[in-house]
Design a protein that fits this description.
By secondary structure, the protein is of the alpha/beta class. α1 (about 110-130) links the parallel β2 and β3 (about 145-150). It has helices spanning about 110-130, 210-220, 230-240, 260-265, 275-285, 295-300, 320-340, 350-355, 360-370, and strands at about 80-85, 85-90, 145-150, 160, 170, 175, 190-200. The protein contains 9 helices and 7 strands.
């Protein structure tokens, strides 16, 4: 997810005021200026397996881009509710105030408790129960030892332009991919954190916003690729981890590897890549029905957790495709090393992470995660 788009600066400076020519001075020479405008051009490379032996000339390195903007340090009015490695910063009055309801009378607003509960549940599900990479253990996030969640008014959260209908889209949450140095008293010197901003009006028991953003932190720590069809598509798939049902809606994706016209469509998607591509793909792997979550201590503990309104935190002990996704994250990590070398990147700038040149590398990683027998998802 991206911060709001900033309009580009003007292409030309204001023309200075015209000065009168002194009497007897020679006439001014008029200069003709020819301006060449470069039109943006972007095509998805449809060539898949394998890459051609001869690569096109490598363009000049993309200039370094700043990391994703992180939220400012906690507001002086913030209060903190924390457990383990996760902290929730909230306010009870003013612009960012959360609903004050406190049914269990423990001094912490119920909505704050539920936000922390879902974040802890996502950590327990993905890291402890299913074995996905821990973002706080990623070399990319060296120095981060906690996750900070800031509850802020939705009007102050970033917006993004929807890739499919081109309209601005208000966000309920945003995860950041840079380590922030926001320490509280008692934290070790030099310690950092990973940050998430969540709308202060969110009711965690009614959705999976916090778990969705936590899954983004797993992605950011596991691999460098950042096309929306990969990040948002798999994060939308992940919402069934704690949510009801084993898998979301199924689209019309039929064949692996995808056809050229399907790749062209896929590259323009974000959240809808889940029903169009990811859900049908993982559905094809579960020939024996929906995949149950493993029967381990972490899952059994999650089944006892409740939100403050009594609803279960783990809605359904099934999740189609979790083994494949775990393999895919490992393959994407290795594919990033290959892409850095083969595409001639000098570093993983934000532009390089989002480049469509990465799509063939991602698709080959998917093929390796599927295995040598991958074929028609309908079979």
């Amino acid at each position: 997810m991206r911060p709001p788009r900033v309009p580009p600066p003007a292409l030309t400076a204001p023309r200075p005021a015209k000065l009168p020519r002194a009497r007897g001075a020679p006439p001014r020479r008029r200069r003709r200026v020819c301006v060449l405008f470069a039109l943006p051009f972007s095509w998805l490379i449809a060539t898949l397996l394998p890459l051609p032996a001869q690569h096109p000339p490598v363009p000049p390195p993309v200039p370094a881009a700043p990391p994703a903007a992180a939220p400012a340090a906690a507001h002086p009015a913030d209060q903190v509710h924390e457990q383990g490695r996760i902290r929730v910063f909230y306010q009870t009055s003013g612009h960012h105030a959360v609903d004050a309801g406190d049914a269990n009378a423990n001094g912490v607003p119920d909505r704050v408790e539920d936000v922390l509960t879902q974040a802890l549940a996502a950590q327990k599900l993905w890291i402890e129960a299913l074995g996905f990479p821990d973002p706080l253990a990623s070399p990319r996030f060296a120095g981060a030892n906690r996750i900070h969640i800031y509850l802020r008014h939705r009007a102050d959260l970033p917006t993004r332009r929807d890739r499919e209908n081109k309209s601005p889209r208000a966000l309920n949450g945003k995860a950041y991919s840079a380590v922030a140095r926001h320490r509280l008293d008692g934290d070790p010197p030099g310690s950092g954190c990973l940050q998430i901003r969540i709308s202060s009006s969110i009711r965690a028991s009614r959705g999976q916003t916090i778990a969705h953003e936590y899954f983004h932190l797993i992605q950011y720590g596991a691999f460098w690729f950042r096309p929306a069809w990969l990040l948002e598509g798999t994060a939308r798939w992940s919402e069934k981890g704690l949510g009801e049902g084993a898998l979301g809606p199924l689209g019309a994706f039929e064949v692996w590897p995808p056809r050229e016209e399907e790749i062209a469509v896929l590259s323009r998607l974000d959240y809808s890549a889940a029903p169009v591509f990811w859900n049908p793909l993982v559905h094809s792997l579960e020939t024996g029905g929906d995949a149950p979550l493993p029967d381990n201590a972490a899952i059994r503990e999650l089944q006892t957790w409740r939100y403050t309104d009594g609803q279960p935190v783990l809605k359904d002990p099934r999740l189609t495709g979790w083994r494949f996704m775990r393999r895919l994250f490992a393959e994407l990590s290795a594919a990033g090393d290959a892409a850095l070398r083969e595409e001639g990147y000098t570093k993983w700038t934000l532009a390089n992470q989002r480049s469509p040149r990465n799509d063939p590398h991602i698709l080959r990683a998917i093929g390796r995660a599927l295995g040598p027998d991958a074929g028609n998802p309908g079979q």
